[in-house]
Amino acid sequence: MTALRVRLTLLYTALFLVSGAAVVAIVYGLVAALPKDGAIRVEHPMDFLAYCRQAIRAANPDLERKCEAAFRQGVVFGGERETTLAALLQYGGLALAVATVFAAAAGWIVASRVLRPIEAAHAAQRRFIANAAHELRTPLTVMRTAVDVVLGKPAPTNAELTGMGREVAQAVQQAEVMIDGLLTLARTARPPTREDLDLATLAEDVIDAAGSPVHADLGEAPTSGDRVTLERLVANLVDNAVRYNVPGGEVWVSTERHEGRATLTVANTGPVIDAAVVPGLFEPFRRLRDRTSADGHGLGLAIVAQITAAHDGTLSAVPRPGGGLTVTVALPGR
């Protein structure tokens, strides 16, 4: 990124220098084109002085002195005009040089600020690719290990071959689930097709299919958006609340219209969560437990965050004092 920052700074400085030089040239041309205020140019200055003295000596001595002063100062010959233009060019060039130095410094600062979010995005992309490669390698390692163990035996039994097949099938299913999550994450980044819907209806459908007891308080929450992805949002939040809960814990789901926005809130009585780690839970492949656990791939909340952003909504998560997490999604109401 340093090379790109240097190129942007040089480009900004060059544009400033060219524009400044054009301004100086235009000003110089305009001043040079101004009328000469009646100044008279003569081929023989001494003849003009003699004529001036002869014409005004008898009439007005003050006029004679003025004529001589004008001759000495070069007004008649345009010398003051050339001096002014030369000074304009000199000081204009000096001012342009100083301003260019400041422009280069300002360009470096601006380029740094402009590239900062791009650098963060590139870092996040590299982190995402590394995590995805790691997660995909896990089921592949399981499959290869199962196959190598069985094929390494001189005469594997049918039971061993069947066990190997089951392990491979389970690893394939795990990879399919993760790939499906990655595809969903990519699809939800696109602008959604919008239709009128109610978050309460979507939440009710998800709760009916959840198969776990959920405390529901579903008030009207009309909004507009893509029905499929918003239903996926609700399902991911409810699944996350059920999955990361304590034994015998509870889950609450509520919808309402609040300050003109359709609001969905999902909370549970899960383990105690440090507030410092909450923002990271919405990044891909981030979860509370270690990577070797079977509790998903850490894509559920990342998909929720992306769907919310695509629908111009806001997402907040707050740890509950006794353990668990309260997640609130607010979408533009209708």
Automatic annotation (TrEMBL):
Histidine kinase domain: residues covered: 131-334
List, alphabetically, the Pfam families matched: HATPase_c (PF02518), HisKA (PF00512)
Which reactions is this enzyme annotated as catalysing?
Answer: ATP + protein L-histidine = ADP + protein N-phospho-L-histidine
Q: Which GO terms describe its molecular function?
A: phosphorelay sensor kinase activity
Highest taxon in the source lineage: Bacteria
| Primary location recorded for the protein, binned into one broad class | membrane
Q: What class of enzyme is it?
A: transferase
Subcellular location field: Cell membrane
| A GO-annotated cellular component | plasma membrane
Q: Which keywords does this chain's UniProt record carry?
A: Kinase, Membrane, Phosphoprotein, Transferase, Transmembrane, Transmembrane helix, Two-component regulatory system
Which SUPFAM superfamilies does this one have?
ATPase domain of HSP90 chaperone/DNA topoisomerase II/histidine kinase, Homodimeric domain of signal transducing histidine kinase
EC numbers listed for it are: 2.7.13.3
InterPro entries membership: HATPase_C_sf, HATPase_dom, His_kinase_dom, HisK_dim/P_dom, HisK_dim/P_sf, Sig_transdc_His_kin-like_C, TCS_sensor_his_kinase
Q: Which residues cross the membrane?
A: 12-34, 88-111
Give the protein name, as stated in the record.
histidine kinase
